[in-house]
User: Which sequence fits this backbone?
């Protein structure tokens, strides 16, 4: 009985020592792992030395991108926060639509940039006092404000100017694209398109200096189609003499001629019932405009 009790005690001590040894081993491994990971994440260890741009940039300066990226490289291969770098690039480079960052062992950083593709200049009617700041509109109706070089400024100055509220930019882009396409039937190019402060649609055309067209707030496509129908036939050669057109009438539209006296004799001989039916000339009793400014 005595020997049996001693053996049990010795077995318990061995088991306890074994467990203690395993615990110490585990603590040692965890401590070593922590120290190793901490060593890996020190900025001075495994520094990133190379930045490679995967995409060819058209508008965003690669030097500016490198400068921002290098300033953000505050860590080594393991310590660099890729998400933080991506956020910095998006915040500081207005041309950048999206960016992906990937680390390549042992010391390289790959950066892939997708730039905004500008399709028009943009002017917010809510913020037109700051018109000195150039804003552009992407193909998806996103307004962005890049820092332009003089060469870029001259290049984008040739684009049409779209106007409206920033929260309606996509709608303005969609509608203006349709209006511009329709006006190609008359060989007219658009200088400005969009909504004014009162949300009324208007156009400025580049045709023999400038032609202004008021479309109103509703049925703007129908209004423009009526104008195109009138001037796409035998009256097309009078288009050069139009200074402005008001299409906001429900049954027609009015025209302001550049020089009425020059047109009087010719119009008296050529205007027929089709022109009168289209109410090209404003009639006294037809003043039910849809949406005056």
Assistant:
């Amino acid at each position: 009985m005595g020997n049996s009790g001693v053996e049990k005690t010795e077995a318990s001590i061995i088991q306890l020592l074994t467990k203690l040894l395993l615990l110490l081993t585990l603590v040692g491994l965890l401590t070593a792992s922590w120290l190793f990971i901490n060593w890996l994440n020190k900025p001075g260890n495994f520094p990133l030395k190379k930045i490679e741009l995967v995409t060819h940039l058209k508008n965003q300066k690669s030097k500016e991108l490198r400068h921002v990226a290098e300033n953000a490289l505050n860590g080594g291969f393991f310590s660099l926060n890729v998400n933080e770098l991506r956020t910095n690039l998006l915040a500081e480079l207005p041309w950048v639509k999206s960016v992906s960052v990937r680390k390549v062992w042992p010391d390289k950083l790959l950066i892939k940039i997708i730039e905004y593709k500008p399709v028009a200049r943009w002017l917010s009617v809510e913020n037109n006092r700051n018109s000195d700041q150039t804003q552009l509109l992407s193909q998806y109706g996103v307004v962005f404000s890049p820092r332009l070089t003089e060469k870029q400024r001259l290049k984008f100055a040739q684009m049409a100017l779209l106007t409206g509220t920033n929260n309606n930019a996509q709608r303005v882009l969609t509608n203006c694209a349709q209006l511009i396409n329709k006006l190609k039937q008359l060989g007219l190019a658009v200088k400005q398109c969009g909504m004014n402060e009162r949300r009324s649609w208007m156009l400025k055309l580049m045709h023999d200096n400038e032609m202004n067209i008021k479309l109103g707030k509703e049925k703007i496509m129908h209004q423009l189609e009526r104008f195109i129908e009138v001037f796409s036939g035998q009256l097309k050669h009078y288009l050069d003499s139009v200074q402005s057109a008001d299409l906001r009438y429900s049954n027609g539209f009015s025209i302001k001629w550049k020089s009425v006296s020059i047109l009087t004799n010719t119009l008296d001989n050529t205007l027929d019932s089709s022109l009168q039916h289209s109410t090209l000339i404003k009639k006294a009793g037809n003043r039910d405009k849809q949406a005056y400014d």
Remarks:
- The domain at 118-277 is CATH 3.40.50.11690 (Rossmann fold).
- Helices lie at 2-40, 62-72, 82-92, 150-156, 169-183, 220-231, 260-270, 273-277.
